[in-house]
Amino acid sequence: MSNFRSISIDIKGRTAWVGAGATVGEAYNSIYEANSNLGFPAAYCPTVGIGGHISGGGYGPLVRQFGLATDNVIDANGRVLDRKSMGEDLFWAIRGGDGASFAVILGYKLKLVEIPEKVTAFSINRTWEQNATQLLYKWQYIAPKLPLNLVITPQIVSINSNQTGKRTVQVTFVSVFRGKVDELLSIMNQQFPELGLKKEDCTEMLWIQYFAYAGGLPTSNIKEFLTSRVSSTKLYYNAKSDFVKEPIPEKEIEEILRKLNELPPFVGMLEWNHFGGGVMETIPESSLICFVS
Ligand SMILES: Cc1cc2nc3c(=O)[nH]c(=O)nc-3n(C[C@H](O)[C@H](O)[C@H](O)COP(=O)(O)OP(=O)(O)OC[C@H]3O[C@@H](n4cnc5c(N)ncnc54)[C@H](O)[C@@H]3O)c2cc1C
């Protein structure tokens, strides 16, 4: 499929035909080069393939406002069928029914969404000793209420503390706000003052740079980062996703951190993504999604 990776953008119609063999990063880069105020709601990781990603759902930092990648597919293209000739049932199934179950997709027509060119991001660490349990507990309650242009994704790992040299658990709150720093600080002071976010923790950057920043990677040379079809980090892991519909009690979070703390540093990680309080609650088709990693 890797040869089916042409990308053509219709700026006026705010759509893009993207070959199924293109990566998400190649699509992000082409859309940005065509118009820096347009984007597509899909994965955090740019090396993910459009074909498998859209076949399985596809979530990323725009999910709360615009839904899954799948929810933003308008048409699909193949040797024999397009949306009209395949009919609405098959068109529904190929957007979330898991890759290769129903058809081989040659390309997708995507609906593009409006994005400010510049965003504000932060990534701050809080250890177990710095109230990580209580912060995670509170995050569950504020996350669905945050404005749709703000996502905060806690990443939880065990580390060896710089201060004590002893094993502890660290939560990194990684966030992107599609707005200015002062507005972000005002929201955070009202909704999540316990995190103690300061102006100096925040960085203004291009929207597309966030995909490198969120992975803890350099944001310079972003075009190369997005269009490289090979991951810059050689990190091999198994991942499993689940949905939590009720807040986890504080003592259970404490138990999760205790379990993670038993693992060697950076072996085992939890990433919490918030889907609630946005468009995901209004899209019934999205119940189809499954994440394959
Ligand atoms: C490092 C990493 C980061 C990730 N980050 C995210 C994320 O942020 N958000 C998210 O939602 N998911 C994420 N994922 C999961 C990712 O979306 C899935 O693993 C997806 O299936 C990858 O698709 P692929 O085409 O790259 O993989 P492949 O292994 O090539 O394909 C996966 C499946 O889709 C089928 N398939 C591929 N192309 C087509 C096609 N054209 N027509 C029909 N079937 C096809 C394949 O047969 C296979 O069954 C991540 C995965 C990795 C490895």
Description:
- The structure is a single chain.
- This protein is α+β, with helices and mostly antiparallel strands.
- It folds into 2 domains: 7-115 and 280-288, Uridine Diphospho-n-acetylenolpyruvylglucosamine Reductase, domain 3, CATH 3.30.465; 118-206 and 240-271, Vanillyl-alcohol Oxidase, Chain A, domain 3 (3-Layer(aba) Sandwich), CATH 3.40.462.
- It contains 9 helices and 11 strands.
- The strands form 3 sheets. The protein has a 5-stranded antiparallel β-sheet.
- Strand 1 (7-10) and strand 2 (15-19) form a beta hairpin.
- Helix 5 (132-142) packs across helix 9 (250-261).
- It is globular.
- The model is unreliable at 289-293 (pLDDT under 50).
- The structure holds flavin-adenine dinucleotide.
- Residues 1-115 form the FAD-binding PCMH-type domain.
- This is FAD-binding PCMH-type domain-containing protein.
- One of its GO terms (molecular function) is FAD binding.
